[in-house]
Specification:
10% strand, 68 residues, mainly alpha, globular
Length: 68
Amino acid sequence: MQHNGVQHSSLRSHLAFNVHLRSESAMFVDGVCVHEGTLPKWEIKMARIRLIQLLSINPITRDTFPYV
């Protein structure tokens, strides 16, 4: 699971780029799944739970460019 901090002004282009070039990957914004990719629903639910747990411990508070 990769985490990136993206500025609000760059979010739309960041999502478009990743949906186009990494279409198999699920994408979450602020804990909400905005692109399911090829993951089954149960895996998306589990990924969301893990993401919320990780971000509660180590929140991303800045842009993390360059994105990996």
